[in-house]
Write a structure and sequence with these properties.
9 helices; two-stranded parallel ribbon; five-stranded parallel β-sheet; alpha/beta; globular; Aconitase, Domain 2; single chain; Aconitase, domain 3
Length: 280
């Protein structure tokens, strides 16, 4: 929320730095996917050794006979060390806590241990009005602590945050735990390939044992298309990538969060900090 949803408008963004280099490829895919919610034309991350190993042996990857030639070319793609950019933003991630949205735009979010901000403190008139409308829609008051806000549903899905690494992370939270009474919990793998891989590892049983529905892959309830929805003014914590009004159903209140945070919240029955879950 430091730069807003329009902070990248008109730009192609290259994400770089020590944090980016430490991210696994699937996390990088999610970051680039979300560049559009920053207003950018596109988001890119320079290929490195992690990228090469991720691609190696996959369908449509270069054949072994072509591999060295392909990698040699890919190594020429990163920006030069002395490259000049139209604009540069630096973000300190050293104290970054799990994030969750409180409003109806990806920019309207903050730390799970933070509070819902007061729109009156916003100097920009458009952002102030947007925050006021968002709080009315979400049924929240300024100053509300996000950690502990009751939920009625939890959803792990979407092409953005339901890859195999996401399901492994969520399963590690759910193993030995159970969804809180009254919470509807659903997991939809991001693709058929991911679903098969998860089932081969037994992750589907972990979700089922914890009280999640395990469904076929697809867009599912990432967005409302006139079919199934979470319900009127139902509060949902979701690993999807957009939280606009009515995105997951008429007047459904969606809180975007990571798969781990969704899993922890499903267990707690409220928005929860996965770092503070009781051990099992």
């Amino acid at each position: 929320n430091r730069f807003g949803a329009s902070g990248g408008t008109g730009y192609a963004i290259e994400f770089a730095g020590s944090v980016i280099r430490s991210l696994p490829v699937e996390a990088r895919l999610t970051l680039c996917n979300m560049a559009v919610e920053f207003g950018a034309w596109t988001g890119i991350i320079a290929p490195d050794e992690l990228t090469f190993e991720y691609v190696r042996g996959r369908p449509f990857a270069p054949t072994p006979a072509q591999w060295d030639q392909a990698v040699a070319y890919w190594r020429t793609l990163p920006s030069d060390h002395d490259a000049t950019f139209d604009k540069e933003h630096e973000v300190d991630c050293s104290g970054l806590a799990p994030q969750v949205t409180w409003g109806t735009s990806p920019q309207q979010g903050g730390s799970i241990d933070g509070q819902v901000p007061d729109p009156a403190s916003e100097n920009d008139a458009n952002r102030r009005q947007s925050a006021e409308r968002a709080l009315q829609y979400m049924g929240l008051e300024p100053g509300t602590v996000l950690n502990g806000v009751p939920i009625g549903a939890a959803f792990i899905g979407s092409c953005t945050n339901s890859r195999i690494s996401d399901l492994r992370e969520a399963a590690s939270v759910l193993r030995g735990r159970h969804v809180a009474v009254g919470v509807k919990a659903i997991c939809v793998p991001g693709s058929t390939q991911v679903k098969k891989a998860a089932e081969a590892e037994g992750l589907d049983q972990v979700f089922r044992d914890a009280g999640f529905e395990w469904r076929e892959s697809g867009c599912s309830m990432c967005f409302y298309a006139g079919g199934e929805s979470f319900g009127l003014e139902q509060r949902v914590v979701t690993s999807t990538n957009r939280n606009f009004e009515n995105r997951q159903g008429p007047r459904t209140r969606s809180h975007l969060a990571s798969p781990a945070t969704v899993a922890a919240s499903a267990v707690a029955g409220s928005l929860a900090d996965v770092r503070k879950l009781a051990t099992v």
